[in-house]
Structures are given as C-alpha cells and as structure tokens.
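PT: before anyone asks, these are the final sequences, not the draft ones from last week. 471 residues across everything. Please model them as a single complex and drop the result in this thread when it's through.
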Amino acid sequence: MGKAFDPSLIVDFIPTLIYYLGVTLQILAASVLLGMVIGIAAAILRVFRIPVLNQFVILYISFIRGTPILIQLFLVFYGLPAILLFINIDISRMDALYFVIITYALSNGAHFAEIFRGAIKAVDYGQTEAAYSVGMNNSQSFFRIVLPQAIRIAFPNIANSIIGSLKDTSLAFTIGVMDMMGRGETLIAATAHALEVYLSLAVIYYAVVLLFEKIFRLYENRINRHQSVDVSVTG
Amino acid sequence: MTIDILFIWTAFKEIIRALPITLILTIFPLLAGFIIGLAVALIRIYKVKFLSGIANGYVSFFRGTPIIMHIMLIYFGFPLLIDQISKKFDLGIQSNSIPIILFVLTALSLSAGAYLSEIFRSGIISVSNGQMEAAYSVGMNSFQAMTRIVLPQAIAQSIPNFTNIFIGFLHTSSIAFIVSQKEMTGAANIVASTNLKFLESFIAAGLIYWGLTIIAEGLSFLIEKKATAYNRGGVQ
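LR: through. Structure below.
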C-alpha cells in the first residue's frame, strides 16, 4: 500500500493538481456550450414534433439517459474513428481531449434537451397568443417571447446538470486525457501516495463545485429579479 | 477497423454474465443509502443539535465531489485505517484479505445516502403540514404521525426521483471497473481487450444498460401508479 500516510502531502499536491484544473474547465465549457446548442435544437424538434427527426431525438435522448457516461466515452472513442473511416477521414490520432468533449457535449445535449422541453412547455400559452396579437410571426414569438422565459425556468436544472457534468469530467482520464484526475494518476505512479492525491483532488473538486453553486445562485437571483414576490417566496 | 456485427452478440452473452455483480453494486448501496438517507433527512428536518451540522457537511461533501473520489478514497483509505486499528487492538485482521467489492459497496452506500437524503427531505417537506396536524388531532404522537401519515406520502411522491437515483447508480456502478471489479463494464473491457474488438463490446454493454434502464423506467411507472392511487382528486 505504498508509504505511510502523510497529511502534509495533501497540501503539497494541490498546486500541482490545480494547474490542470484548466483542462477540466476547458472540457466543461466546450461541452456545455456545444450541449446547449444541441439541447435547444433537439428540444425545438421535440416541441414542434418535426416528423422523423422527432423520433430520432427521442431515440438519442433515451440512449444517452440509458447508458453510463463511461460507456458513451468508450463508444465515441472507438466508434467515431470507425464511422469516419467509412468516408475516408482518419481521426484515430486525434487528441483524446476532443473525444471527451464530443462525448460530454452529446451527453449534455440530451439532458439539456429534456430540461428545455419541460421549460418551453411550462411557459403559459397566453404568452404566444399575446405575441401573435401584437403581430409577431411563429419564429419571432418563439425566439423573442417563449424561449427567453423558458431559459429562466430551465436555469436551476441546467445549473445542476452543469455541476453533474463537472463531476463526470473526472472520468475522462480513462481514455488517457491529462486533466486533474489524469495528472493525479501520474502523481500516484510517481510518489505512491494514492490516498493523499485523491484527498487533494476531492478538496479541489469540492471547492470548485461550491464556487459554481454560489455563482449559479447569484445569477439565478439576478434573472428572477423581475418575478413577482409570491413566486419567489415559495422557492 | 470494421464493425463485426456478429461479435456484438458474442460479447453480449459474455457481458450479461456480469449482470449479477452490477445489480449487487446498484441495489445494495441503494438499500443502505435508503436507511442512511432517511436518518440524515430526519436529522436535518428536525435540526437535531450537533448532528445536523455533521449531516449538512456529509451531504454537501458527498454531493460536491465525484463518486469516483469516494470509491478511491475508501479503496485506499480504509485498508490503512483497518490495519492501524487491527495493529493497535491486535485483532489480526488483514486489510488485503477483505474483498475489494466491500470497499466499493461502502463508498457507493455513502454516496447513495447523501443523494437519497435530499430526496427524502424534499419529499417530506412537500407533504402538507395539515397532514401532520390532522394526525395530531386524532391523537397520534410525532413518531406515529411521521411513520404512518407523512412518510408513506413522501415516499410515494418521490418515486420518480427514486427511479432517477436507481438509474443513476446503475450507471455509476460502471465506475467500479476502474478498481478492477468484473461488473458489466469491467467484463466488456476484458472481452474487448482479449478479442481486440473494443467498439463491438461496448455496443453490447451499452445495449444491456439501455435495456435495464428502460425496464426500470417501466417498473417505476407501474409502481408509481399503484403507490399514488390515493391521490386521484384535483387535477386528474
């Protein structure tokens, strides 16, 4: 079991590991932004029941929600090069980081789509009618009136989903990405102080999650500032 | 690299043999977490002195760190602790004689406890206070009112959340393969690397997880219909 437990190492490891927090946040930011685009597009296809694409999105969401992120990671890592080889594109030497971003974007996209769909449905239909009555067309009323309100309703769930995604990025090291967790693995290989490394990683992840929660709460208060009091009191 | 469709079926048969371990890694932590979660939720709701501080810290920490951290910390931490205690009290227990799966189960149980406590808490809070008052008015004490009136309603309402947690932990059990447990993902990995057919194996594993998830969702829908049968007034 390596060497004796040395608590002072926990503090010593933090600077080395936090240096790789950037990679973790990079995966998170890229996958959340891409996921947001996929999610909104998929939610629109679902809400307006576009034929064929609607069924495809149902299948996509069901698959993503039905399989572990680890399996999705392996499927993208081994599957995407195989599929792209059919059209003569060789990406088998691409940096593992991109596979991770694609996987998490697809995963976030499915979760966001469900959240947005619920939120769009939660917007009162009277809003659309009011938009029509002032002369907006379909897409104007959707993008200017319904969607902004849906995003406000969806925000708490999106925030939870992002935090969940941050914790999921800790699995990226399984396909060889050098994020915080990956650096932790190499530190363990070099020093044989596994417990201390994992404790410092836990401290960093915990601190980042707490910070994110704080930021999201502030932002949520901000976007809800125009809501009437009786709504926010119950919350 | 071409896709060998037939091998997916071969891999499927091989991987599904690891299903019992996956189910143990899912169901046992949830049962243990059910007890931990209920206790923690009650401690937090009644704001029990001293304990509620610990309960808050526990829930916050376990929900704020990735589950792989819990597995790794317990996997590396507990043997150290057990050896120390064993040496001190001369118990003669060797940490390396304890199967790894017990460490994984402990870690997952603690995580499940934290996640389930939040579901219990929101479920209990969502039961109207009038129910408690009505129970008092017919002469029940706090304990009776809680166990006979509030908890059954809280649990019935939380069934969709419990299903989400069940599916979440079914998927989380795949992390156990990192500490070389031969559950379904571990089995898929072995099948993949012995035959050098990675994509096919993980497709097979993905299909099994997907099927299990759909079954779980269907069951939950049936159970929910039965458990909330009392609640037909109002909207429906």
